[in-house]
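Field reference: sequence -> structure
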Amino acid sequence: MRNKGFTLIELLVVIAIIAILAAILFPVFAQARDKARQTQCLSNSRQMGIAVQMYIQDWDEATPSVRMMWSFGTTGTSWIDLVQPYVKTRLLHRCPSDNSPAWDDPQNPRPTSYGFNAYFDPYHPPYGSPTAPRQMSLASVYSPAQCVWSAELAERRSTDGMLIRGDHFMAMYWGNPPRVVDSMLNMRLWDMQRGIPTTLAITRHSGGANYVFVDGHAKWHKFEQTWRQQPGQPPTRDWYDPMRTENQ
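Structure field:
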């Protein structure tokens, strides 16, 4: 007796079925993986927010500073270093979806995936400056539940591809017109054509990103839920300026 085998047609049908199933299932697996990374990132964000809250309580409600190079030198100590005693592990500084090559740079590595809102920094305008720093207190924040502490930093600046190695973002230079007028920084930090910031990863997780708020909660949002502006007009929504009273 002769053993039965597959005909060529049957083999091709099986291969076609496997290919169809793979095409259906692979996107599902990819979405599940991305969702897991988003959840881990949200957990990181929440723990970093708790660390900032603990720092503020220990320093009489004064917010931490960020590190910035000015024309006359460096100001501030990175908030990442200031909250480190409350975090314990530097693994929280990196989002699982952050694939920046700067992480592996031995001389100038990327310090964090999460940028601190420079409105709270004592050396940044409009509430402070390098020559006249002003320490922002928690009590001065108008709407803590609608004011962003930190947001996810992009791997590269979207307009020119420059690697981002900082520890903060400067929302005061966003928009048309910006809150603080500086044409050079406005051009670097705001994409005028698309109406989005150049240094934030605003679509890293399912078209949005994770944000930490002053009241301590962390949540996923689309960028337009946190900031809106019609060109030539003040923002109709601004969850970054801690003293703005028109937040919606």
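Note: The first strand starts at residue 68 and ends at 70.
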